[in-house]
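WARN retry 2 of 3 for item q-0093 after timeout on previous attempt; input resubmitted unchanged.
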Amino acid sequence: MMARDTTTPPGRRRREFLALAGATALGLAAPGRARARTSAHEMAEMTIGDLGAALDGGALTSRDLVRYHLDRIAAYDRSGPAINAFITVDHTAVDRAAALDAERAATGKRGPLHGIPIVLKDNLNTADLPTTAGNILFRDYVPGRDATVTGLLRRAGAIIVGKTNMHEWAMGTTTVSSLGGQTRNPYDTARNPGGSSGGTAAAVAAGFAAAGLGTDTLGSIRIPAARNNCVGIRPTAGLVSRAGMIPLSTTQDIPGPIARTVGDAALLLDLIAGPDPADPSTLDTARPEIGFSAGMHPNALAGKRIGIVDSFFGDPADPDCAATNALADRAIGDMAALGAEFVHVGDLGTVTSLAAELTEYEFRQGLDRYLAESGTPTPARDLAEIIASNTTVPDVQQQLVAYQPFTTDFPMYRTATAARAAMIGYTLGVLDDNRLDALLYPTTPTGAPLIAAAPVARHEIQMLAQGRSPVTGLPAITVPAGFTDRNLPIGIELLGRPFDDGKLIGMAYAYEQATGHRAPPPLG
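OK item q-0093 returned
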């Protein structure tokens, strides 16, 4: 792991770097300075704000920035360590960047992402690129319109440089698919990146884009974010539109940001949150007027009361779990030093069967509806035809077959829905009874597993059993908490009340700024 410069104030380091980084990493000369060399990892780690400042100041162009990221993808995703984070790379993005450069010069920038490279998980519709959910049968399927979140990012000026690999149909945590193959973890390419949004997390961690979107149904944003030393946010249910997302669970699905910093993740959430007539679940919600970035302050943890969920820590007798627990304990100490108060809340129970039942009963109807409403021809008309094609990776094919008979008309679905309501009440009761601002626990019980390991190990089952945020719809954020002695990233997670997304972002930001655990992977 690369040592951090702790002698120079971060703000000054950033200003000094911006004087050179944008231009010199691309072989250009910064104003008033001799040409210098900026290492690839520095350019790849620049925040959206830093990139925007370099673009605004003329230190680089969007065309050069996109070309840099495409070259990096070619060097590290398609060859070299072969991270394999992408299903589709859009090489025409260079032309789109040139057009945005001209637009900037003529009329100014569209928004905070003007000319910034972004990636999307490949279950989010793009009208100009295939959307496949990782299934080879859908390799040429291009939807007739963007997902709502895709359109919002484009309106802010984002350039979509590619669609990222995912665990096929979002049904797993290792990110393997019939179309994309196996994505590798950039911190250890013998290991998987987590899932199902593992392609987005690996791409962002490796510096293939400034940030990206994943989707979360049980843990699919936060698990890969944690295992790739990134920040991941699962927003409050109803805060972000699912329109144009290939569905898994109509109750639990939601898009959300994966980024290298809390600030970048908050910026993306600011841009994609809000009501959308195409998704009725969002119509009773409104984006806070102050924005989610407003609470980002170094003192945001002062006076906060946080509950430690002891049952979500791994088995201390297991060395891998013990290493994660130690980092979580260190994070608790760091937050306490920043003014947070902690109490232990013990056991919150598990949710594996409840979450599986909701997905099991909702999947077929949701997918069939998505295909019927596509607006362009689809390679399969419904789940039955996808199953009959036998194109899906074996572990997911088994799940498709198992889910195919079920619908939301089954009495057990109503039982599961009632159990979900009870779990929401119970979790909110824990927060209220203990006067808590948030709950805290390790995002995953261990670092990333080896690719050669069993697909669903004991630790992975425990991790899915901790999926309190998806089942309840409560917001959660994971932030880097350091590295194990095997140099594997670990994340710490905070969960809060409905629409406390901004409060969680503030607390995560204060911790991030005080500890600085983000470090690039050893790619060069």
